[in-house]
Amino acid sequence: MEVGPERLKEALAALGLKTGGSIQQRAERLFLTKHTPLEMLDKKHFAKGARGSEKNGVAAAPQDGNLKEIALMEAKMNKLCDLLDETITRTKDNIVKKQALTYEEIEAEREEEETQEDSESEDDEQQIYNPLKLPMGWDGKPIPYWLYKLHGLGQEFKCEICGNYSYWGRRAFERHFKEWRHQHGMRCLGIPNTKNFNEITSIEEAKELWKKIQQRQGVNKWRPDLEEEYEDKEGNIYNKKTYTDLQRQGLI
């Protein structure tokens, strides 16, 4: 269990004790309750008003007892919310998702749930009813039909570079260009896996495009032997290759 300044403060408040002081003082005050009943503790440890009506051995008013119970209940509720934080967050997300559904999507999901409930009630060990052959979700059950249609999971995309591997849905197809299978295929072809080759699934098309890119790079590439210029004493301009040949022959 996590113990910190705020936890100590909550625990002391639940018992009606003072919550001020340093962390060590709070801890010592709370530790007193381990071996000493509350009614035996010195009044100086209690918060103002917690035992205000307890004088000359007279018990505190019922209202003080109610305040103590309320504080204790609040501390328990805070702890329970901390333990169930993930569940509460998932529940909120699920509600937001359902509120965003259209009427047709709600009906499709309801029909899907009814179909699954009927098949499960007939026989728990029976194979999951999936006549539409929908993909399986994280819970081991077919995903809702509306979700299947939304992501276009009925569309098959084959990639020859990936060894004719099939990708279902446009999203999975677009994502696969950055995944290991496609990268490995491009590496085997000796082609860099850049954005230029997105949407290219044919080996022949990839090779053809890579050849064009190499040719374009070769045309635009600076060639010093032909493009670097030299000038002789008379002001004649030559490229590097010609100038070097003439100089070697002693003509310049």
From TrEMBL:
The Matrin-type domain, residue ranges: 157-188
Any one Gene Ontology cellular component term annotated for this protein: spliceosomal complex
GO MF entry, a single one: zinc ion binding
Annotated compartments: Nucleus
Region of interest (Disordered), residue spans: 106-125
BP GO terms, sorted: mRNA splicing, via spliceosome
InterPro entries from the UniProt entry: Matrin/U1-C_Znf_C2H2, RNA_Proc_DNA_Dmg_Regulator, SDE2/SF3A3_SAP, SF3a60/Prp9_C
UniProt keyword annotations, A-Z: Metal-binding, mRNA processing, mRNA splicing, Nucleus, Zinc, Zinc-finger
Main localization category: nucleus
Pfam families listed in its UniProt record: SDE2_2C (PF13297), SF3a60_Prp9_C (PF11931)
Name of the featured protein: Matrin-type domain-containing protein
